[in-house]
Specification:
With 402 residues, this protein is of the alpha+beta class. It contains twelve helices and 13 strands. The radius of gyration is 21 Å and the shape is globular.
């Protein structure tokens, strides 16, 4: 493949920032830009796992990534977490979507980490807070080698950046517009939780918000915004009551806003977390959505908040039932094989992971979502009718759980 010539430069700071910039355009717009990594890059202190997980194969941002040169600004680790990452002009309590979304993800990080520490009983989260020159920052928390959790990460970021005019014009599908660089804002919470017990499922969730400001030299240019995210379950063994409980919580959160949300976002989740070379899904799904801006903004803010606040009631009761279930070496080996599938999806299909590796991001942060241990066996096939086979069958043939 011939080398690509960069046509724009995007200055970004972290995987989370990159995710919002590169995955949040309205995919109905035409965008003919793509990606070429910058030769110079520095470290990143946030998780890249969910950063550029695009659900739509022909998303304009996938094409943006093929010709835009991206440089990574170096973040600075700070000794104490700040009260806010917002700029003074945004105001922490001004009632804006920015301020309320920041408050929400900070509260979700606190509540989820508190619930996980209480359940684990032994492990404690290590916290790293960071800021970036372009504005904003984030808080990364990781619990490792606990009594219940092998590895658990819960990260937030609230960052600012500048979108090149080429990307803005393409995103707005208006060749007549010639604005200068367009400021943008991005915020999100991202988490992956890997329990030790093979009967206790892995959980992933991510909720994010993105805005562009009207460029100063293009008065009247519209501000654009998007929401994205989801929560999904990845067990090694199926307990139908657990999966039904998990999906019922997702459906209840969706139904509060629109009865079409759950079936639509459930299918989106099944389709997105598909390991093409295996012909199977990573797990048993949940909900997933992206580029969501075709509803009232206040409604979608409330919806994202409801979904994020549903993580603890959807997941903790399952862990409480399964964390101490007796298991043998065969059960553990199967869990390790399923974790191998998790690793394959992240390293082959997850855009955030590959983006971080190509741009020289901080490896510890890029791979924070991966489990401590995994396993691959040559030509492994579970015995038909076994509990392992039932899980594989459900991953190959998604079911309606509620």
């Amino acid at each position: 493949m011939p080398p690509l010539s960069p046509t724009a430069t995007v200055s970004v700071s972290s995987s989370s920032l990159s995710f919002f910039l590169l995955s949040s355009f309205d995919s109905s717009k035409k965008l003919q830009l793509s990606f070429c990594p910058s030769p110079s890059s520095a470290t990143s202190t946030t998780s890249l796992t969910d950063s550029i997980s695009l659900a739509k194969p022909n998303s304009p941002i996938r094409r943006l990534m093929m010709t835009s040169a991206v440089s990574i600004e170096k973040e600075t680790v700070i000794s104490e977490r700040p009260h806010t990452f917002l700029r003074e002009t945004d105001g922490e309590d001004d009632g804006s979507v920015r301020s309320r979304f920041q408050r929400m993800i900070m509260e979700v990080q606190e509540s989820v980490c508190g619930a996980l520490e209480a359940l684990d009983g032994a492990g404690k989260f290590k916290e790293d807070a960071w800021t970036r020159p372009g504005g904003g920052g984030g808080i990364s928390r990781v619990l490792q080698d606990g009594a219940v959790f092998e590895k658990a990460g819960v990260n937030i970021s609230v960052v600012y950046g500048v979108m090149p005019p080429e990307a803005y014009r393409a995103a707005t599908a208006s060749a007549a517009d010639q604005p200068g660089p367009v400021p943008f804002f991005a915020a999100g919470v991202s988490s992956v939780l890997h329990p030790k017990n093979p009967f206790a499922p892995t959980l992933h969730f991510n909720y994010r918000y993105f805005e562009t400001d009207a460029p100063k030299d293009a008065p009247g240019a519209p501000r654009q915004w998007w929401f994205g995210g989801g929560t999904d379950l990845t067990p090694a063994y199926i307990f139908e009551e657990d999966v039904k409980h998990f999906h019922s919580i997702q459906k209840r959160a969706c139904d509060k806003f629109d009865p079409s949300f759950y079936p639509r976002f459930k299918k989106w989740c099944d389709d997105y977390f598909y390991i093409k070379h295996r012909g199977e899904r990573r797990g048993l799904g949940g909900i997933f959505f992206d580029d969501l801006n075709d509803y009232d903004q206040e409604m979608l803010l409330s919806f994202a908040t409801e979904c994020a606040n549903s993580v603890v009631p959807a997941y903790i009761p399952i862990l409480e039932k399964r964390k101490d279930t007796p298991f043998n070496e065969g059960h553990k080996a199967w869990q390790q094989l399923r974790r191998g599938r998790y690793v394959e999806f992240n390293l082959v299909y997850d855009r955030g992971t590959t983006f971080g590796l190509k741009t020289g991001g901080r490896i510890e942060s890029i791979l924070v979502s991966l489990p401590l241990t995994a396993r691959w066996e040559y030509d492994h096939k579970p015995e038909e009718g076994s509990e392992e086979w039932k899980l594989l069958d459900a991953c190959m043939n998604p079911k309606e759980w509620v």
